[in-house]
DNA sequence: CATGAATGAGTATTCATTCAT
DNA sequence: CATGAATGAATACTCATTCAT
């Protein structure tokens, strides 16, 4: 039966991760008590330790899960578009809508969680680097089709990713429209044409 | 007398703030021990409490001092330029050079420090809002002189500020040049001209 | 199971109260370390805080428990007597024997414990007032049966209670006999008869 | 000159003792800060240590001074009376009036101050013993003149001293009259005559 | 498997005392 | 003599983790 063996486990583990996300994003690491996570998950405190060896590891697993899930959603929707410009647009739109659907996500950016250990930091930087490379490849494709100017693809990727933060507090996700952001990103601030070297 | 007369107090307070900056940025709030700050300042632990009522308040005062100092330096240099484009350029250049001179500054962006109280959070958002308004006014000036396209000045300001983060880890301040960043910010990613509505 | 089932909690709480009584009466509040109370109770320091929210509250609870227990013992034995004189006699005898059985009780009168909060002070004064009223009613009964002279019952009660202190240090409970004390209390110091107004 | 040498010292020492009395009786030992005593005396904190080697010693000196002063006043007035009954009456009257003039005195009885060291405790018990002996001699004199019954003079003295506490809180010094107290002390509670052995 | 009672390491803060001025 | 800035010892309390049931 589906309720018999390993299923219950995965369900409970997921329930713990969900509670952990809720509490960690609301209170930050130090203010989060394992008790509270357990209670929110409707289980005993000791049970948390059957699934995660420590509070730190629980945080790391939760962060990994959230980041993976969101990046994967982002990439999935982007992959459904072919055109570089369309990919960027769907990325921004997806990012904005994910934040709007789940405002707690914004806390992941605000709370540090930086004390997580070196291994996690490395994993996180790798994920960022991978994602930046992914965006850089899109930029390169755009440059190749001459839609984009011959900019440094890595820098462009870094800027594209940085600009996602305009949808985070304190600006708020309601303030700016995706199209307006893309307008500036695509055509720049200046009236004039770029200098010809 | 030592150096001036009555200066001792302010000197010692500043010395404590400096030590606090060094230790807080290196270790984060929880891992920072008041003892360590005191030792680095070359004073006794109790002395810290003659100048600051608590470890939390010490952090807040240190953050305020650093933010004020850096924003003030930024604005001072920007005010020496008249042209909007020149102002932005000097802002990016100053930001990059401040980070290069003092890499610990980058930690201010990374560490959590989220427990800072509501009063501090309010102060910080006000500072951010003020700075964004300051940038927005520069953009407006650029629009008026028709150097800039008629974009939303607040959005432009938010993007300009967001893009400063490309000089922070994990990208690193060595990776990208100020001119390259400004090139993309000014002329956008696209080869084509913006759509005419 | 240990002894009963669910009794463990109350047992441990009582064990902590007993240890607290021993240490607080021996050392006073400030010199008492929570660690020491815990060790004497044979438990960990943290466990004390599962039963009492603070060291102060532990003291208050201990004091309340001791006072209640002793007053209750006093009243119980007094209620078994009918005659006012017999009641007073059993009160003095019980008081003296309680102090002899447990000399630490005397410390409750000697130690400061002054920081006890307003709520406790109010409770304590109420207990004292209740007990004084109880004694005053006994005096009134004695006056009605004309065993006692028509004295102010409240004053008589206050004096009767005050005189209990001759069994406390530094006089010591061995020095004076209950009968001798009662003799003076009943018939006064004077040879002559009281003045007739 | 009178202001030159030792006079200023004695004045300041006394001023410190007065402040110490005020603060210690109001707050108890632990809650009293040396700073506060110094400020009330209008001097610097360090100056206290020119006159008293420690906070504890300051408390002891203050207590000694107050006790000596009050006992001496008591004895002085009692010595002006010849008759045992008159001596007791003036003792009670003086005690009640001293408490009324300076309610803080009552705190000396309420606050423990028992942690003061062994030497002080010994001194205090000696003073008490001396005073009890003094009262006992008065009782003996009364017995000799057959005004008093042949009671144990030490017990009588202990009871006489114990009964002084009816003028202390929580009973309050306004509640009971000296004459009423003496009436009970002299003629006892009972209507009947004491048993003849 | 699940629980939650028990544990004890770890740290900010106070304030009596000192001593350079 | 007088001061008060500086010191640092001393301690209650929290909460992640364990393990007997």
UniProtKB/TrEMBL annotation, chains A, B, C, D:
Residues 33-52 bind DNA. SUPFAM superfamilies: Homeodomain-like (SSF46689), Tetracyclin repressor-like, C-terminal domain (SSF48498). PROSITE patterns: HTH_TETR_2. InterPro entries: Homeodomain-like_sf, HTH-type_Tx_Regulator, HTH_TetR, KstR2_TetR_C, Tet_transcr_reg_TetR-rel_C_sf. The keyword Metal-binding does not apply. Keywords: DNA-binding, Repressor. PANTHER family: ACREF/ENVCD OPERON REPRESSOR-RELATED, ACREF_ENVCD OPERON REPRESSOR-RELATED. This is TetR/AcrR family fatty acid metabolism transcriptional regulator. The lineage of its organism: Bacteria, Bacillati, Bacillota, Bacilli, Bacillales.
């Amino acid at each position: 039966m589906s309720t018999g063996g390993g299923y219950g486990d995965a369900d409970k583990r997921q329930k713990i991760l969900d509670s952990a996300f809720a509490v960690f994003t609301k209170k930050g690491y130090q203010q989060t008590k394992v008790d509270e996570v357990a209670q929110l998950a409707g289980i005993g405190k000791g049970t948390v330790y059957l699934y995660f060896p420590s509070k730190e590891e629980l945080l790391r697993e939760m962060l990994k899960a959230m980041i993976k899930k969101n990046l994967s959603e982002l990439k999935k929707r982007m992959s459904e578009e072919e055109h570089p410009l369309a990919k960027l647009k769907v990325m921004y739109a997806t990012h904005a809508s994910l934040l709007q659907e789940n405002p707690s996500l914004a806390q992941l950016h605000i709370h540090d969680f930086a004390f997580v250990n070196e291994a996690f930091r490395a994993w996180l930087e790798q994920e960022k680097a991978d994602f930046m490379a992914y965006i850089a490849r899109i930029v390169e494709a755009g440059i190749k089709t001459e839609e984009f100017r011959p900019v440094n693809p890595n820098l462009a990727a870094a800027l594209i990713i940085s600009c996602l933060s305009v949808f985070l507090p304190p600006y708020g996700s309601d303030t700016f429209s995706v199209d307006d952001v893309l307008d500036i990103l695509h055509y720049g601030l200046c009236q004039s044409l770029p200098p010809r070297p």
